[in-house]
Amino acid sequence: NLAVSEGEILGHLYAKGIKPDRGQKLDKEMVKMVCREYDVEVIDVGPTKIEEMAKKIEILDEEDLDNLQDQPPVLTIMGHVDHGKTTLLDYIRKSKVAASEAGGITQGLERIRFKCLLMALCSHVFFLTLLDMSCVPIIVAINKIDKEGALDRVMQVMQELSSNGCQPEDWGGDVPMVQISALTGKNVNDLLETTMLVAELQELKANPDRNAKGTIIEAGLDKSKGPVATFIVQNGTLKKGDVVVCGEAFGKIRALFDDAGKRVDDAGPSIPVQVIGLNNVPLAGDEFKVVDSPDIARERAKERAISLRDERILAKAGDGKITLSSFASAVTTGKNSGLDLHQLNIIMKVDLQGSIEAVKQALQKLPQDNVTLKFILQATGDVSTSDVDLAVASKAIIFGFSVKVSGSVKSYADNKGVEIRIYKVIYDLLDDMRAAMEGLLDPVE
Ligand code: GDP
C-alpha cells in the first residue's frame, strides 16, 4: 500500500499524459509508473484478469504467459443475406481510406479486426450459434434505420433479441446495440467507437512465438484448389508447411492467402488467412491446431470423427436432462419422469489417457444390481460445450476427474440444465456415484 492520496496519484498520471476515468482500475503499467515515482518495487502476483480470461477460453497455455504481446482485435460481421454486411464493410473501408487520405487513420480504427458484430434487421432478427457467444463479445448493429417506419420497429427487434438471451445494455444487459444505416452512414461512427471500446476492454493478448491454433471461420470446396478454409489465428503463428488438424480434417498447409488474396508465408495472431492443403472440408466454428506430424494429425482427426459420429447417434436419442441428485431422488421416490432408472449415463472427462481405464474400472466395481453405469463418452481434456450438448442428447451427467470447467462452459451447462461434477479424489467420486445409485445423494451447490 502506498500512503499517498488518490489526487497525488492522479497528478503523476496526468503529468505523463494519462487521464484515467473516475473509478477506473489502473493497469499494470500505470501502477508501475506511479510506484517508480516513490521508489517502490512492484511484485507481480499471478496472472492478470485478462490472462486468466484468455486461459479460460483455452487459447493461451501456461507457457504463453511469459511471451504475451498485444493481439489486434478482429471484427467479424454476421447477419443474414441482405442485412447489409457488404454495405457496412464498404462504408467502413471508405471511411478508413478517407481518414488515411486526410492524414490520420485513427489508431483505434486500424486496430479493429475482431469482435463479433451481429447484424439485426428491422424485419427479422438473426441468430448465430456457430461461435461460442459466451466467449466472444457481441455488439448488435440494428441496420436500415433510414427506411420509412424502421424506427418504430427497433423496439420490437430489441425485444426479440432480449427474449433470445441477448440483453441490450440500455435495458441493463451487457450487449451494446447501435442503430445504424450502412447506406447513409448514420451512427456508423458510434458503432465503430463502441467496437473499439469493447476491444480495449478485452485487451487481447497472444504469443506469436509458438505453434498456431485458432478457429475456422469458413470452409468450402474449390474446383481447382480442393478444400479451402479460412482460419483465424488466435495464438501462435501459422506457417506454410505446418501440419494442422481441424475437426475431422487434417493436412499440410500448401499455401496461405491473406484477405486480399495475396500469397503469404505466415499469419500471426488475429490474422485471417485462407489455407489450402487439407484432405477434407472442415466445419466452420471448429478449432484448428498445428501438430508435430502428419501421423498425429491423422490420429486426432480419426478420434474426432468417431466422437462426432457418436454424438450424431446420441443426438437422436432424446432431449431429456438429468442431474446426479435428481437421478438419486428418482431412484428413491420411484418417480422417474421418463428416466431409465436402471441405467445411469455418464460422460467422463479425465486429465490423462492413463486415468481413463483406472477411473472406469474403479466405477465398474461398484455394485450394479439395481443400476448399471453406461459410459457414453470417456476422453481426456477439460469439459467443453460439446460434452454438454452430448449430455443433453443422451440424458447423461458429466463428471470430470482432475480437469477444469471454464466459466463459459459452466454457464452453458447451467442454461441447459446439465450437471457437471468435478473430482480430485477418486474416493469422493466413488462415494457420490454409489450414493446416487442407491438414491442417497445431496445436490451440488
Ligand atoms: P449483405 O447480403 O448482408 O451483404 O447485404 P448488402 O450489403 O448486399 O445489402 C443488401 C441490400 O440492402 C442492398 O440493396 C443495400 O443497398 C441495402 N442496404 C444495406 N444497408 C442499408 C441501409 O442501411 N439502408 C437501406 N435503405 N438499405 C440498405
UniProtKB/TrEMBL annotation:
Keyword hit for Acetylation: no
Keyword hit for S-adenosyl-L-methionine: no
InterPro entries, sorted: EF-G-like_DII, IF2_II, P-loop_NTPase, T_Tr_GTP-bd_dom, TIF_IF2, TIF_IF2_dom3, TIF_IF2_dom3_sf, Transl_B-barrel_sf
The protein's name in its UniProt record: Uncharacterized protein
Keyword terms, alphabetized: GTP-binding, Initiation factor, Nucleotide-binding, Protein biosynthesis
Family: Belongs to the TRAFAC class translation factor GTPase superfamily. Classic translation factor GTPase family. IF-2 subfamily.
One cellular-component annotation, GO: cytoplasm
Lineage: Eukaryota, Viridiplantae, Streptophyta, Embryophyta, Tracheophyta
One Pfam match: GTP_EFTU
One GO molecular-function entry: translation initiation factor activity
Ranges of residues in domain Elongation factor G-like: 212-290
Domain named Tr-type G: residues: 130-196
